[in-house]
Predict the 3D structure of the following.
Amino acid sequence: MNCKVCKIPIERTAEEKALYKKFGFDDPELCFDCDHRQRSCFRNERALYSRKCDKTGEHIISVYSQDKPYKVYKSDVWHGDSWDALEYGRDFDFSRPFFPQLAELQKAVPRIALSNVNGENSEYCNMTVYNKNCYLVFGGDYNEDVQYGTLCMNSKDCLDNDLGLECEQSYFIGDSSKCYGCQYIFDSNNCNNCYYVSDCTGCTECILCTNLVKKSYCILNKQYSKDEYLIKKNELITGSYSQRQKNLNEFLNLLKKRIVKFSHQVACENCSGDYLKNSKNCKYSFDTHESEDMYNTVVTYVAKDCFNCTLIGHGAELCYNTQSVIDTTNSISSYFLFQCSDMAYCDLVISCHDCFGCIGLRHKRNCILNKQYSKEDYEELKSKIILHMKKTGEWGQFMPHYLSCFGFNESTAAEYFPLSKEEAIRQGYNWSDTEEKRPQAKKTVTASDLPDLISDVTDEILDWAIECEKSKRSFKITSQELKFYRDHNLPVPHLHSDERHMVRLNLRTPRKLFDRKCANCEVGIKTTYSPSRPEIVYCEKCYLTKFY
């Protein structure tokens, strides 16, 4: 069987075939990339716009640009009592397919400007909960004083933090946990005051190192005395932009030569994929934590028994073909569900159960196309609609591309499963030509302001100011951000925060498994490191034997 979109061959395992039968759906004939790309195009994390609230007329920050054909309400209004999504309810028309009717409802029901729950002084965050004093954090929760982060959790006073867990006073973090005072740290844990390190555990005061465990005062994996180390540290960690670039280039060369474990798995049983932790029976799953019995999933936290899902967690269970659902059970083919159960083909629904084809509902049950029914009438009508959708070929499919409220280039799909504009349009995705107008914090610092804010202005900062003025994509530095750079002896960046995010993203392996052999014992392994990559790949046994 070939993927019906990209035409590459697909081989389903016996487990996959059994799961399709378990959830009661036919095989959608999509490969892993095309399947997750279709769902991910419904989620916009990072593209923020300035627009007006369609209820109050106030200027607000939103993931929907002003030219989008949707009603958009500021968050407190959307959650308030001044409107009711049932007002937009309608009868189902059996003379037409289901998806066009859902599209019409989608354009009528107001949408929330940002998904930013219980944030404090964190107005410019999206897809987040319980952040404090955070700025441009996307998909990250329970952080404080974090700026420019993606899927970072429980971190404090960090900047440029992607998938960092419980990190503090650190900069440029990728897939690391419990690190303090570190800069440019990747795939490392429990490290303190380390710079340009990868695949290290329990290290303190190390620079340009890889694969170290419980070491101190090392540079380029060479041991130094404390006094020797501090002299060399002063030469390498200067706060100079040119020295930083030199360090980065050397670090990138180190990454190519290092030994890597075939998969980033910690305390896992019977799992395949990458970046899994404390999980069991998770197959072809990526960025999966505290989960069990998952298959073909991307980014899951505390989830169980789900299949073909993207970005789900915190109690998600028995979900199929869903995107961005939290604390939700027994639901299919839906986007953005929070504390729901028994849902199908719903979009942006909170604290509801037994709903079908609904949008924007809160605290409702037994609804179809936002119309209320008795339990008996709901079940009867739902069964008829399912039979109708089976005849039209819609049942079991995820919502089609045109139901996404975003252009492909605005969506999370463009980051992890990229397509060119031509490819995206050819595959039926929307594309946004609207110029992205990134809003800034209330207190901002422009390049021309920098000399007035610091007394020890260097030629480097003045050069950066000139460069920023010439840049095709200008950006501002917040006062909070500038203080972080000064406090941590860091040069002001020359790249926009989105571009820095892509640098970190490109340092990760793709969410794809390849067949290889361990470079040491030659046992067969499945790994995200393709055979053409330069790293030396070990199986888990050989890796642990060598370094632990």
